[in-house]
Design brief:
The chain is about 35% helix and about 25% strand. By secondary structure, the chain is an alpha/beta fold. Helix 6 packs across helix 7.
Length: about 325
């Protein structure tokens, strides 16, 4: 299993130059990433743990919000559908989304759950000491689910591509995905899903599902160690998920694509890895914009491979600019 012909600089630019005209509708589990950053100079006398002297806080958007941030950083116009609570984290999340020019008027408020927040205690040398999660993973139902579906349907007619970003935090329901697939199919708009395996039956009809290799192994009960393993597992995944294509992200082994056109493997771009957090978000955002801009799946996968290679060299959820992506092809 080998990759497709190399994407030329001219073709890469032709695709990326169309990103600003594309509208990306993202539905899923939005999160706020809070980094409490400080210095460590001693161990606590109360327990064998470091004492972090607070210096400052940083905030980033996570989960489906990080997919949106990646799509926006690449130049796409982005609308985000998801769930938030009535807490200060929801206000901060909206501020961060607005600062990144991401449409967030479609966020649905659920007063019975907190805004999903990951609070990380981090040293000034980017060493994570601890993480505290504020969340509810109860799946949306009743009027809250109806509001999510209504917001998705209200924006899908303007979308060039739809992304479902599932983190099992409650926003992604079977009804939401069915509405996305049905409405998008009627408009011949691709639907991409970043999956969680307990919801695999939700994704039937999706254009492309993008599991990492651990998720693909869980879904297929097959080990993936080689390209051929990935090809076989991809076939089983397609049958089980009832989707049209699967792109398995395999870390340092690259990506494996299986769709009606066949199977292909794309080696990883060599990088010094600092943090793999959010790399899957970068991949699906890049593939989504590329498909919307007229790329083939093979071309989209190549662009995503290079985008992922850039973000893993950075700390925390990161994004890529069009110029940085195009520089990879010069």
């Amino acid at each position: 299993m080998t990759g497709s012909p190399m994407l030329t600089p001219a073709r890469a630019r032709a695709i990326v130059d169309r990103f600003p005209a594309m509208c990306v509708l993202i539905a899923g589990d939005v999160m706020l990433d809070q980094f409490v950053i400080g210095r460590v100079s001693r161990i606590s006398p109360e327990a064998p743990v470091p004492v972090v002297e607070h210096d400052h806080d940083e905030y980033r958007v996570g989960g489906a919000g990080n997919v949106a941030a990646n799509a926006a950083a690449l130049g796409g116009r982005v609308e985000l559908v998801g769930l938030v609570g009535t807490d200060p984290s929801a206000d901060r999340l909206r501020q961060e989304l607005t600062r990144r020019a991401i449409g967030c008027d479609s966020l649905v408020v659920d007063a019975d759950r907190p805004t999903t927040t990951k609070q990380r205690i981090v040293t000034t040398r980017n060493q994570q000491v601890a993480r505290v999660d504020f969340e509810s993973d109860r799946e949306a139902s009743g009027t809250i689910e109806q509001q999510l579906v209504a917001q998705l349907c209200a924006h899908i007619d303007r979308a060039s591509v739809v992304v479902v970003s599932d983190y099992l935090k409650g926003a992604v329901t079977k009804a939401l995905v069915e509405a996305a697939v049905d409405r998008a199919r009627a408009r011949r708009v691709p639907v991409l899903v970043d999956p969680k395996i307990p919801h695999i039956e939700y994704y039937a009809g999706a254009t492309l599902v993008t599991p990492n290799h651990h998720e693909a192994e869980m879904a297929t009960h097959m080990r993936i160690r080689t390209d051929e393993d990935a090809r076989r597992a991809g076939g089983v995944f397609l049958e089980r998920a009832k989707c049209q294509g699967v792109l398995i992200t395999r870390g340092e082994q690259g990506m494996s694509l299986l769709d009606p056109a066949g199977a292909a493997h794309y080696p990883a771009v060599a990088r010094e890895v600092a943090d793999v957090t959010g790399a899957g978000d970068t991949v699906i955002a890049t593939v989504a914009l590329s498909l919307a801009a007229g790329a083939t799946l093979a071309e989209a996968a190549q662009l995503a491979t290079h985008a992922a290679g850039i973000v893993v060299g950075r700390f925390g959820p990161a994004t890529v600019s069009p110029d940085e992506l195009l520089a990879e092809f010069r």
